[in-house]
Amino acid sequence: MISLFEAAAECLAAADPAEKVALTHRHAAAFARGELQAPVDAPPPEPIRMPGRPPRPRLVHPRDVPRRGLGSDEGRAAFLHAIAHIELNAIDLAWDAVYRFRGLPADFHRDWVQVADDEARHFTLLRERLREFGHDYGDFDAHNGLWQMTEKTAHDGLARMALVPRVLEARGLDVTPGMIERLRSLGDMRTVEILETILREEVAHVAAGSRWYRWYCERAGVEPRARFRELLQEYAGGYLRGPFNIEARLLAGFDEDELASLEYVEAAQSGA
Q1: Residue 238: predicted pLDDT
Q2: pTM, whole model, 2 decimals?
Q3: 190-210 residue pLDDT tens
Q4: Confidence category of residue 52, pLDDT binned at 50, 70, 90
Q5: 3-state secondary structure the chain
Q6: Domains, the chain, with CATH or none
Q7: How many angstroms separate the Cα of 254 from the Cα of each of 36, 101, 228?
Q8: Nearest-angstrom CA–CA distance, 54 and 94
Q9: Range 231-248 average pLDDT
Q10: 96 pLDDT exceeds 70?
């Protein structure tokens, strides 16, 4: 029987998206049944590297990803592809947290295995909808920004919890409601339904990041609000874009001081 860490590594290594999704669901179910354990004597994790990826999409700089309006089928397909790419990355982000950060409470692994399982389901919903528009995952260019932040925080679970769930993934809490309203006005209720499901569940995912960020801070004797602002200034330049969805972020474990820090750093980096 393989360990939880070996299962996580297997999911990370899978290059075919369908295989990554299937392995994720299989291992998450095995973990829920108590069949995957996190051994205390496991060797250290391997250095972080690029997870398995298909030959397409082509990865380009974020500014080179084409922007298309939602008013056409091609534009909606490009939008669905961009969100599907985020969700595929999010599977790997969750499994990397399980794999990389060891010697932690069982609830840490439980949270991030559940997140990986949810993200795999989100990717499938989006890919199926994308196919209804005559496209598939890989048909449009994408970027690698999410994984780059994972690499930058591989050495520090506190920084990972602060920045990946609470900055990069939380961006979806800010922008998805506007996308939902735009798609609703276009009559695309199927995509609206998918995005509403993802938004609801992403609040819980960001909340897991908030919970474990504060756990790390308490263990290290660090004041979480001050450290969050320091981490934003150190790592998050260029990643923050307001306005922020205050209601959703409060539900996801932010407090008013942290929201003020987001706004302060965003304003500073934009030169406001």
Answers
A1: 67
A2: 0.94
A3: 999 999 999 999 999 999 999
A4: very high
A5: CCCHHHHHHHHHHCCCHHHHHHHHHHHHHHHHCCCCCCCCCCCCCCCCCCCCCCCCCCECCHHHCCCCCCCCHHHHHHHHHHHHHHHHHHHHHHHHHHHHCCCCCHHHHHHHHHHHHHHHHHHHHHHHHHHHCCCCCCCCCECCHHHHHHHHCCCCHHHHHHHHHHHHHCHHHHHHHHHHHHHHHCCCHHHHHHHHHHHHHHHHHHHHHHHHHHHHHHHHCCCHHHHHHHHHHHHCCCCCCCCCCHHHHHHCCCCHHHHHHHHHHHHHHHCC
A6: 4-38+68-270 (1.20.1260)
A7: 32, 23, 11
A8: 19
A9: 84
A10: yes
**Total residues found in the chain within this entry:** 272
Reading the block at residue 63, the tokens are 């500014």
- Token look-up 């609801």 returns 200
Residue with the two structure tokens 């209804």: 132
Q: Which residue in this structure is represented by tokens 């399982």?
A: 117
